[in-house]
């Protein structure tokens, strides 16, 4: 790169950072388009709309309620992946959608969930809407090659069979679609439909096709619902939560940049500059992709800042190694980026595979987590492989070409990983088993194996209307401590209903005695509004409802299946890339170790297990696989030179030792950013940060002390089998030679 081109590169990078920062903090126009303030925030940070439906059937079955909740959850995911749907009482369903404020508009778009049936002209019902899997408006070409709008339907297996029988017997006749007793469409059957998929055509506009599809989707619920109330609710957490998280992010970025400059000097400054570009791009992209950001989401973004320097650490460590081996600085830069490429790509692609599977198969917060993680991974790869490379080459062209500007490679004595492997395995086994042991102890003590939050176990919703107005910060400081004194539990969520003094508190399940005690205590400490009931009695405006878990069994099952499929896909990718299933097997074993250690933290410390639990586990999965692949990449690189090492054990020890710089600095920078969250964050953030810090330490331990040893054990088992097979083959050949020789001797005689 010429000096002039280098100067231009520096100017363009500075301009890019300035534009990104301006966009992130001010926006593109007066409305602040693209700015942080326009990012959709979750119910915990900005509030949203709360809608309550009641079933027409007074005593719905548990199965129908669960099915309806699950289908509604899938539907409201279109508004936000952080939307939640849960049961309230016996026959009510509550929907909470963050980042929106117009309840009437949401109700109009969501539609009135009513009954839907497909019936013949004589009134015979072919099937009901519960068998509809999907209904979407689409466009296609008709027989005259003209564009037309249609509605595409797909039924489940039972519905497909019923529809096949009905269409086969009624070709040329109409099958009406009846919604809430009204015929909304009466298409004619042109031919038998036996594959469970059909297309409704006619003189549709795009609007009418979408309207019919909406009727069918809404009517596919197992239960008929009626809306009984809708509210705009305020944030569950105060401004303090958001400001503390932002403060933690700023402190984390500053600490990471300082560490990188101390460790790598000029490349460290470049890494810091690239990190700022990454952070600004991430904020702008979250806005551009219309993602909803909750408090755990903010924690995830801050965590990704620590993980984003990983690629830079790998690159700069490689550059140092090449300089130490006698290469010129220019050659070291080129070779360093080239050699680091495979580890960076493999590590990030495995994470992206997991994100893709989770986004495809999971629902709710898991899907939202997958989307934000994928965005962060893609942007971090771009900043490391493109931005950092341009900046390093520009700095070299501008005169920063002396070796002293790149620091000296840190040399570690050969680590006896293979020799000490039994000790490392025992330590890992003790850490892993501590989780189940404490679960048994906790369960025996009657506390439950894990401290399940309301998202998992459900609870009680207490609706209170006060005479005085309280802000969210007032609620945190004045009302929550009073409630906590009654229920003896710190997990209290509060939502302020817009346009009044009504506040909804969500707590663990309260007994009848606890509910009465709470009413008396609130009445003693605060002025509660009153109303006159139908009998003329004056009552305090406090209502209780039992609520189900916001994470339904179906959502849990979908999340578990998605994670298992994601791990299998990662295993297959590693197997393919490394051409050896032993690498994949060792990586998955290390990943399981890290996840189980984090699980043990939840059991031992009794951290509340809720939505952040899922996010924490998924974060550790992504972090762990990255750390492992860096070491395996070095083992793969050294294998062709195996004869240069005295043994396979020395090859593994050398590979682990040579990547220690990366392991230390990446773990340190990630730990520092999470530590900032733990220091500055509110209680809910601390509960998210603590297990992640443990997970980072577990990941560092497994990548350094376990992965190489696990691969070594699997590999020497293969070598022994190969040697035994070679000996057997040699013996067989020798025996064949002896037999042949004896035959020849006999023939001569």
What report would you give on this structure?
The chain is α+β, with helices and mostly antiparallel strands. It folds into 5 domains: 3-39 and 237-406, Multidrug efflux transporter AcrB transmembrane domain (Multidrug efflux transporter AcrB transmembrane fold), CATH 1.20.1640.10; 47-102, Alpha-Beta Plaits, CATH 3.30.70; 116-220, Gyrase A, domain 2 (2-Layer Sandwich); 421-436 and 552-723, Multidrug efflux transporter AcrB transmembrane fold; 460-547, Alpha-Beta Plaits (2-Layer Sandwich), CATH 3.30.70. It has 21 helices and 19 strands. The strands form 6 sheets. Strands 3-4-2-12 form a 4-stranded antiparallel β-sheet, with helices on one face. Strands 6-5-9-10 form a 4-stranded antiparallel β-sheet. The chain is globular, with a radius of gyration of 31 Å. The protein starts with a helix and ends with a helix. The mean pLDDT is 83.
Annotation keywords:
alpha+beta, Multidrug efflux transporter AcrB transmembrane fold, Alpha-Beta Plaits, Gyrase A, domain 2, 4-stranded antiparallel β-sheet, 19 strands, 60% helix
């Amino acid at each position: 790169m010429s000096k002039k081109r280098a100067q231009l590169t520096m100017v363009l990078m500075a301009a890019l950072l300035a534009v990104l920062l301006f966009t992130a903090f001010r926006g593109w126009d007066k409305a602040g388009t693209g700015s942080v303030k326009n990012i959709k925030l979750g119910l915990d940070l900005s509030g949203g709309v709360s809608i309550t439906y009641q079933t027409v059937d007074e005593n719905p079955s548990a199965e129908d309620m669960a099915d309806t909740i699950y289908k509604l959850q899938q539907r409201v995911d279109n508004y936000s992946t952080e939307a939640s749907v849960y049961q309230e009482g016996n026959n009510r369903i509550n929907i909470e959608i963050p980042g929106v404020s117009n309840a009437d508009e949401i109700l109009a778009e969501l539609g009135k969930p009513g009954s839907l049936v497909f019936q013949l002209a004589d009134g015979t019902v072919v099937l009901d809407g519960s068998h509809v899997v999907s209904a979407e408006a689409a466009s296609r070409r008709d027989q005259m090659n003209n564009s037309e709008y249609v509605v595409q339907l797909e039924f489940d297996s039972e519905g497909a069979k019923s529809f096949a029988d009905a269409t086969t017997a009624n070709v040329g006749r109409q099958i009406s679609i009846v919604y809430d007793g009204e015929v909304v469409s009466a298409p004619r059957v042109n031919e038998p439909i036996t594959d469970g998929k059909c297309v409704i055509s006619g003189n549709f506009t795009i609007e009418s096709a979408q309207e019919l599809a909406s009727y069918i989707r809404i009517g596919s619920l197992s239960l008929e619902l009626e809306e009984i109330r809708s509210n705009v609710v305020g944030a569950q957490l105060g401004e303090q939560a958001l400001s503390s998280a932002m403060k933690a992010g700023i402190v984390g970025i500053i600490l990471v940049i300082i560490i990188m400059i101390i460790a790598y000097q000029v490349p460290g400054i470049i890494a810091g500059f690239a990190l700022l570009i990454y952070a600004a791009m991430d904020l702008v992209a979250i806005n551009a992709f219309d993602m909803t950001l909750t408090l755990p989401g903010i924690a995830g973004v801050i965590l990704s800042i620590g993980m984003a320097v990983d690629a830079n650490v790998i690159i700069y460590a490689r550059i140092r190694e090449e300089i130490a081996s006698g290469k010129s600085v220019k050659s070291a830069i080129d070779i360093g980026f080239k050699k680091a490429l495979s580890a960076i790509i493999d590590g990030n692609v495995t994470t992206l595979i997991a994100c893709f599977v989770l986004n495809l198969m999971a629902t709710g917060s898991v899907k939202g987590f997958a989307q934000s993680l994928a965005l962060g991974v893609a942007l971090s790869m771009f900043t490391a492989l493109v931005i950092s490379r341009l900046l390093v080459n520009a700095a070299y062209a501008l005169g920063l070409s002396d070796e002293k500007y790149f620091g000296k490679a840190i040399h570690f004595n050969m680590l006896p990983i293979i020799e000490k492997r039994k000790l490392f395995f025992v330590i890992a086994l003790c850490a892993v088993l501590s989780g189940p042991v404490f679960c048994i102890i906790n369960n025996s003590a009657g506390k439950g194996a894990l401290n399940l939050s309301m998202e998992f176990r459900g609870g009680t919703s207490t609706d209170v209307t006060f005479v005085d107005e309280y802000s969210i910060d007032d609620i945190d400081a004045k009302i929550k401590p009073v409630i906590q004194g009654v229920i003896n539990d710190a997990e209290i969520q509060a939502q302020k209903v817009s346009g009044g003094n009504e506040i909804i508190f969500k707590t663990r399940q309260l007994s009848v005695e606890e509910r009465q005690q709470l009413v008396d205590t609130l009445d003693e400490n605060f002025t509660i509004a009153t109303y006159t009931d139908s009998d003329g009695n004056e009552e305090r405006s406090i209502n209780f409802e039992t609520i189900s878990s916001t994470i339904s069994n179906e959502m849990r099952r979908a999340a578990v299946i998605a994670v298992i499929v994601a791990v299998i896909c990662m295993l297959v990718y590693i197997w393919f890339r490394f051409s050896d299933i032993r690498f994949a097997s060792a990586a998955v074993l290390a990943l399981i170790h890290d996840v189980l250690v984090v699980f043990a933290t939840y059991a031992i410390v009794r951290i509340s297990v809720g939505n952040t639990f899922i996010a924490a586990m998924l974060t550790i999965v992504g972090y762990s696989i990255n750390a492992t692949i860096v070491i395996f990449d070095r083992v793969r690189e050294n294998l062709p030179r195996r004869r240069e090492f005295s043994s396979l054990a020395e090859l593994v020890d050398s590979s682990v030792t040579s990547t220690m710089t990366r392991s230390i600095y990446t773990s340190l920078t990630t730990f520092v950013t999470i530590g900032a969250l733990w220091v500055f964050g509110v209680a809910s953030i601390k509960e998210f940060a603590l297990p992640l810090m443990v997970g980072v330490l577990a990941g560092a331990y497994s990548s350094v002390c376990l992965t190489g040893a696990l691969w070594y054990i699997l590999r020497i088992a293969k070598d022994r089998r190969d040697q035994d097979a070679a000996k057997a083959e040699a013996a067989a050949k020798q025996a064949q030679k002896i037999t042949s020789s004896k035959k020849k001797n006999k023939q001569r005689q």
